[in-house]
Amino acid sequence: MISKLKAYLKTSRLLAAFGAAILLAGCSIKTKNLNTAEGTLIEAHRLMKDEFYEEARNQFQRIKTEFPTSPLQLQASIGVADSYYEDEAYPAAATAYEDFVKTYPGRDEAPYALYRLGMSFAQQIPDEYERDSRTTEKARDIFSRLLVDYPNSQYKEDALKRVKEAEDRLARKSFSIAAFYDKMKQHLAAAIRYDEMLNAYPEHPLAEEAMARRVVMLRKTDKKEEAEAATEKFKQRFPDSKFKSMMAP
Fold first, then answer.
1. Which of 2, 17, 154, 199 is the most exposed place for a label (fewest CB within 10 A)?
2. What is the pLDDT of residue 245?
3. How far is 22 from 10, CA to CA, in rounded Å?
4. What's the pLDDT at 31?
């Protein structure tokens, strides 16, 4: 009987301790310190971790507006941008990262902000390269800037890859526009477009075909001298080209 009573008392004490721990935890959650920039930042990061991005953004914004002299302004600004990015609101994220780069140039966080700015544009690139290429151009330009401004950053390898991917898409679109004019028998317009593609992307795999087709277009517009000069240049660069027969007069 005594042993049962001891066991009962022990269990009761454990349950009471467990209940007290839950109560204290609940109280600590309810008494978040949002009256300071530090406490607000902690809450914002907690919300980010739990994927409540809009709520986190509101807390980051509170730091910016309610604690304007706080040294945490920088973290709040990058937090706002990150909250948009993680929420897949990429246009808004791009604007926020761009504002950060302008406001805090040269800071340690600048390479990260530039990389995320490039990624915000990269996430908006259409699946088909023939469509609007403005986000592709933006992504290429930002990643190129990152490589120039911070050549030894941790984002170097990925930035190089993304510049190459963007250049490939832009070159293919440029070639497709020239090919469209070619198909429509607008020979002068096609020749101009092939030339633009070659000047912008001279090392692209499609450059060989673009040079050959430009010669054909020039011949069809009676620009014989320019066509012959282009033919000689083509032969020097691609002596064993499979497109030789295409250029025959």
1. 2
2. 86
3. 19
4. 55
Question: What is the predicted pLDDT for the residue at 128?
Answer: 84
- Regions in the chain scoring below 70 on pLDDT: 1-31
Q: Is residue 202 part of a domain?
A: yes
Question: Within a domain: residue 217?
Answer: yes
Note whether residue 215 is domain-resident: yes
Residue 27 has a pLDDT of 42
Residue 249's Cβ-count burial label (10 Å; 0-12, 13-18, 19+) is: exposed
Q: Quote the CA–CA distance of 170 and 104 in Å, as a whole number.
A: 31
> Which pTM value belongs to this model?
0.81
Which residues, at least 6 apart from 112, have a Cβ–Cβ distance to it below 8 Å?
78, 155
Helices (H), 104-223: 110-122, 134-149, 156-183, 187-200, 207-220
What does the pLDDT read at residue 222?
83
Range of the domain at 189: 185-249
**Residue 82: inside a domain:** no
- Residue 75, both tokens: 């973290």
Distance CA 203, CA 167 (A): 10
Q: Which two tokens stand for residue 19?
A: 């209940």
